[in-house]
Specification:
This protein is of the alpha/beta class and 237 residues long. It has helices spanning 15-24, 38-50, 65-79, 102-130, 141-145, 151-162, 181-184, 188-195, 206-217, and strands spanning 5-9, 28-34, 54-59, 84-87, 134-138, 169-175, 228-231. A seven-stranded parallel β-sheet has the order 3-2-1-4-5-6-7, with helices on both faces. Bound molecules: NADP nicotinamide-adenine-dinucleotide phosphate.
Length: 237
């Protein structure tokens, strides 16, 4: 392993997390975390290896405090460190507050916000001890500007912006509309409406997010911390 950096990407099995994992693998050994998509995570690892990098897939439900403790603890024990943590795992269960179930509120908060807290908490000790660490959180413009029908999602993503700003380099990316399975399900009318609000007149790609995440994970960004960076084609400016 030499002195390769160790990177953990939560929700690295699909979409944005997958692209971030593939990009970071150009420089680091990547732990591709997944929860349900075992085969997709294995495919990401194969893609990384085919490109000459190295990675492994590890299952962990980030919403579980206990699973995260073991997940992060095992990696630190094996490698002695985690250099980069990307808190990307996320879900949405949209609905108007009046009809939103307690379960749909809790599961989104637990995965998106508590999951981010869990991983930061367990990774912090080793990063502080090693006096090195890059934490990159993936929020959303819904967490900055709100969005009808996304009370749970917006609250979880706003909470991420408020989380832990003072451990090593901690920065938050705020993607706008990025083309993944999460946004595929939206109808054409909704997509047209969103597109009309994007000054750059196109949707973002997972690669766009991966490029910024790779910069924030690198030593080129060593003097940037506590920042919230929009990546939304200008939707919020
Ligand atoms: P996606 O295609 O639906 O992928 C979600 C990823 O999160 C999957 O890899 C999934 O893994 C993982 N995940 C979900 N619940 C998990 C859990 N409990 N534990 C571990 N992993 C879990 O979504 P995406 O569009 O790539 O979104 C990635 C992140 O960007 C999310 O945080 C999302 O909120 C944020 N974001 C997306 C957009 C957008 O336009 N797409 C915009 C702003 C922010 P499994 O399938 O293995 O469970």
């Amino acid at each position: 392993m030499d002195n390769k950096k160790i990177a953990v990407v939560t929700g690295g099995s699909r979409g944005i997390g997958k692209e971030i994992a593939v990009k970071l693998a150009e420089e680091a050994y990547v732990i591709v975390n997944y929860n349900g998509s075992e085969e997709k995570a294995a495919q990401v690892v194969r893609e990384i290896k085919d490109k000459g990098g190295n990675a492994e897939a590890v299952k962990c439900n980030v919403a579980s405090f206990k699973e995260c403790e073991k997940f992060i603890g095992d990696i630190v024990e094996r490698f002695g460190k985690i250099d980069i943590l990307v808190n990307n795992a996320g879900i949405n269960k949209d609905g108007l507050i009046l009809s939103m179930s307690e379960e749909d509120f809790d599961s989104v908060i637990n995965t998106n916000l508590k999951g981010t807290f869990n991983c930061i908490k367990f990774v912090s000790k080793s990063m502080i001890k090693n006096r090195y660490g890059k934490i990159i959180n993936i929020s959303s413009i819904s967490g900055v500007a709100g969005n009808p029908g996304q009370a749970n999602y917006a609250a979880s993503k706003a909470g991420i912006i408020g989380l832990a700003k003072r451990i090593i380099n901690v920065n938050t990316i705020v993607p706008g509309f990025i083309m993944t399975e999460m946004t595929d399900v939206l109808g054409d009318k909704v997509k047209e409406n969103i597109l009309s609000q994007i000054p750059l007149k196109r949707f973002g790609t997972p690669q766009n997010v991966a490029e910024l995440a790779a910069f924030l994970a690198s030593d080129k960004s060593s003097y940037i911390t506590g920042q919230v960076i929009n990546l939304d084609g200008g939707m919020i400016m």
